[in-house]
Amino acid sequence: MTDRNSTVVVKDGGSSSGMILGIVAIIIVLAAIWFFALGPGAGTTTPGDTNINVNLPSIEVPAPS
Question: Model-level pTM?
Answer without folding.
Answer: 0.45
